[in-house]
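Practice problem: predict the structure.
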Amino acid sequence: METVTVSPKLQVIIPQKIRDAIGLRDGDKIKVVAFRNRIELPPCAPSALCEVTSKASTPP
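Answer:
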């Protein structure tokens, strides 16, 4: 488990060790999921699935 600090712009940097472990690269899409009292950032694969899901969850 790694600990990161939230920046004043509410951004976090995913540690290199974690990025390497899951194969996350610059430009990859990830989802942001609120689950109970935590935030999960699962990678999107395939990326088209994330685009369809995010469009479907956006109110008209």
